[in-house]
Amino acid sequence: MAKQIQAIRGMNDILPEQTGRWQYFEAVIRDLLASYGYSEIRMPIVEQTDLFKRSIGEVTDIVEKEMYTFDDRNGDSLTLRPEGTASCVRAGNEHGLLYNQTRRMWYMGPMFRHERPQKGRYRQFHQVGVETFGLQGPDIDAELILMTARLWKKLGLSQFLTLELNSLASNAARAAYREALTAYLREHSAVLDEDSVRRLDSNPLRILDSKNPAMAEMLAQAPKLSEYWDEESRVHFAELCARLDAAGISYVHNERLVRGLDYYNRTVFEWVTESLGAQGTVCAGGRYDGLVEQLGGKATPAVGFAMGVERLVLMLEQLDQQSLPREVDVYILAATQDAEIPAQQLAEQIRDQVTGLRVMLHCGGGKFAKQMKKADQSGAELALILGTDEVQNEQVTIKYLRQEKAQETLTYAALTEVLGALVAK
Ligand code: ATP
Ligand code: MG
Predict the structure, then answer these.
(1) Which atom of ligand 1 is nearest to the CA of 120?
(2) Which of the listed residues 64, 126, 210, 279 should we mutate to test ligand 1's pocket, taking the one with most ligand atoms within 8 A of CB?
(3) Nearest bound ligand to the CA of residue 125
(4) What is the pLDDT along the chain (425 residues), one digit of tens a residue?
């Protein structure tokens, strides 16, 4: 036998048994984004490598060790996108969507990072990203957070998620803090792990984000970023908190929340859960007022977030609270061979007449009992049976698969009514 080819490690097939839950999630989030007036943008999956180096930052986990980068046939260095914000800004600049206007956009799709695969962490994973441009106040930051809170409520996940919030303040404030932090870390260099030593000069704030328990105590005593906040950032943060308070959204101010990408300033936030083990962040974002200019556009304030679809679908699965909607309403079968063509015709006719109804035609023949078993397994509400008599009399026999109700034989006209009522349910 020929050797089977396997999927790439960390890149998953999403199987028919699972897609129902994905589609449910996608439908809920589409409706939610529409209800806030956001528009969808779709970007390519591959970009020039420089786009990510310049935006995410050279000394970050993503750029240092996680990107899928390759030379194409022309020798150009390309990268499978590890996230969407850089592409979205690139597209916005390229098509003049950002300058002197406001934009509220979203996208959904696969991202690629070469990480160690484990539960909730994959090499191809999916994000829903939301990005807004041209708005600098805490009002839009609050809108984004309110929107995510509403999503958790709709999905039944609110009680499992906590909001963590911080401000990275202005570039100048962060630079002053960086100096103080670096000095402190140097004093404690004996406790620093290898990654942290390397980051000490290039990206010391990221050391705060370390999950290494051996450094936890030392980091807890480190100088606090909030002690270095500039006045404007302090007011911005206070106003954001006031809006969250007014909306009844609770949050934790996490001084060590710095995010893994270089482009953030001021507001940063994460929604975290205890229910997924180590991969606890399901949604993360913040303000990135400098990025548009950094990527060649005119200075434009911006704020956004991205959520990990796999992690959220895992949470929904664990809850199992979302019983999946049925995928087939009606299963049509032929009790006798002479009814096979009429059965196929009937299926087509019903699809013409009853919009929204999901009709599955039995294919492959077989004994009646076996066909009925398939009808039951399909999850359908009704089986429609055609045999010699039904065809001759232009009638159909209905068997109710989920109710204690005797089967009945109806005319086509009466059938259409029964089926119409099924769509409404
Ligand atoms: P983490 O700390 O878990 O590595 P991150 O800070 O690298 O996350 P972001 O770049 O902020 O993640 O991406 C936003 C969200 O996308 C994350 O909160 C998470 O839900 C999801 N995500 C990120 N990387 C992965 C991955 N490899 N597999 C599955 N989901 C992911
Ligand atoms: Mg990561």
Answers:
(1) 29
(2) 279
(3) 1
(4) 899 999 999 999 999 989 999 999 999 999 999 999 999 999 999 999 999 999 998 878 899 899 999 999 999 999 999 999 999 999 999 999 999 999 999 999 999 999 999 999 999 999 999 999 999 999 999 999 999 999 999 999 999 999 999 999 999 999 999 999 999 999 999 999 998 998 898 889 989 988 889 999 999 999 999 999 999 999 999 999 999 999 999 999 999 998 877 789 999 999 999 999 888 999 999 999 999 999 999 999 999 999 999 999 999 998 875 456 678 999 999 999 999 999 999 999 999 999 999 999 999 999 999 999 999 999 999 999 999 999 999 999 999 999 999 999 999 999 999 999 888 66
Q: What are 318-327's contacts with CB under 8 Å, separation 24+?
A: 318/275, 319/156, 319/157, 321/156, 322/21, 322/24, 322/155, 322/156, 324/20, 324/21, 324/24, 325/20, 325/24, 326/358, 326/379, 326/380, 326/381, 327/20, 327/358, 327/379
Q: How far is CA 213 from CA 193, 196, 217, 280, 400, in A?
A: 11, 13, 8, 17, 60
